[in-house]
Amino acid sequence: MARERIFQRHRHPIKTFSLGLQHVLAMYAGAVVVPLIVSNALGFTQEQLTYLIAIDLLACGVATLLQVWGNRYFGVGLPVMLGCAFQAVSPMILIGLNSGVSAIYGAVIASGIFVVLFSGLFGKLIRLFPPVVTGSVVTIIGLTLIPVAFRDLGGGQGSEDFGSGTNLLLGFGVLVFIILMTRFTKGFIRSIAVLVGLLAGTVAAGFMGEVNFAPIREASWFHVVKPFYFGTPTFEIVPILTMILVAIVSVAESTGVFMALGKILDKDLSSKDLARGYRAEGLAIVLGGIFNSFPYTTYSQNVGLVQMTRVKTRDVIVVAGGLLVVIGFVPKIAALAQLVPGSVLGGAMVALFGMVVSSGIRIIGSQVDLNRHENLFIIACSVGMGLGVTVVPELFAGAPDWAQIMLGNGIIAGSFTAIFMNLLFNGLGTKATAAKMAEKQADVILGETEKLA
Hints:
Elements (H helix, E strand, L loop, with lengths): L2 H5 L5 H30 L3 H24 L12 E3 L4 H11 L1 H17 L4 H4 L5 H23 L11 H20 L2 H5 L1 H15 L6 H5 L18 H28 L6 H20 L5 E3 L2 H9 L4 H15 L2 H5 L6 H26 L5 H19 L9 H7 L2 H17 L4 H22 L1
Antiparallel strand pairs: 1-2
C-alpha cells in the first residue's frame, strides 16, 4: 500500500470514532494495571493513584500521537498504539523502594534520552538482544510478576482478610471468566477479554459489598497536568542503567511490531523509518518521566485489531490517541480503575502476566534453534537466575546498596545473565542476522494476529 493510503481520512466519522474506541479498549486494561501495581507497591495515596492513572492514560495518548505523526525527525508513521511497558514494573518498584520515587523518574528520563540519542545505532545495539535473550527476558518478566498477581488475588499482602473465601472466589472467578471468554469468543470481544473480566468481577464484587466508591466521589472532573508531580527527579547511575536495559528490550520488541505492521500495509520499512520510530518511543519515555508516569512501548495487541478490522488508515489511531488524552484530563474517569478490588485485579493479572510468559516462550520456540545445547544452556541459566533471585531476594542482602538494585531484581539479574552468556556462546552476531531475526519476529506477530482476525 502506498504511503498516501496510510494517511488518508476515513469517510465515516462515526465508524472512525468507534474503531478508535476499540483500540482504546484493547489496550486499556494493560494501561491501568501498571499504575495500580506500582502505586500499591510504593504506598501511594488514593489521590496520588488517581493522578497516576490519569496522567498515564494522557501520556499513552501523547506517545501514540507522536509515533503516528511520522515526520522527518520522529514517528514511524504507522497505525500503532503505545502503552506502559510491562517490563518496567519490577525495576521501577525496586528503584522506588531503594532510592525513592524521584530516582525512578530520573532513570526514566535518562533512558528516554538514551533511546533518542542512539536511535540510529539501535540496529547494532539490538544485536545484543537476539531472540534467545529477548525470549528469556520476556519469560523472566512474566514469571517474576506472577507472585504479584497472586498476592493481589488473595486480597493484598498483609491484609486482614488475605486468602479469605470471598477473595479467592472473586479472583479465581475472574480468571475462569477470562479463560471462558478466550475459549468461546472471537475477534474484538476476545481481544478485550481481560477488560471484560475486570468489569464483570467488579460488578460481582459490588453485589458482595467489596467495592469502595470513595475514589470516584473524591476525584475532580478536571485537573491540570503537573510536571514532576512526585518531586524533582534525581539521577543515579544504577537505576539509570537498569531503565536503559528495559528500554532496549522494549525497542527490540517494538521492531517486530513495526515490521509486522509494515507487512500488513505493504510498506517496506527502511532503517531510517525504524530510527524515527525508536526516536518517537524515546521521546514518549522522556515525557513519561517528566510527567511522572511510565516508560512507553508499542502494543502488539493493537496490531491484531488492524488485521481484524482491515482498516489501516492513520486517522483511527489518531482518534484513539485523542480519546486517551481527553480521558487523561478527567480524574473521575481515571478513578474508575480504583473501583476494581485487589482480588479481582489479581485474577486478571494472572491471565495478563501469564500471557507475558507465553509471549517469551513463543519467541524462544519460534525463533531460537533449540537443537543447540548452547541456547538451551543460556535459557536455563538466565531463567534460573531470574527466578532464583525473585524467590530468594535476601541472597544479596549483604551487598552494597548500589549492587542490590542490580543483583536483587530477578529481571535485571536474569537479563544480564542472558546477555553475557549469549556473547560468550554465540558472539555478537551480524547485522544481517539481526535483520533476519526481526523479520522472523514480525512473521510470528502476524501469525498471531491472523488468528484474532
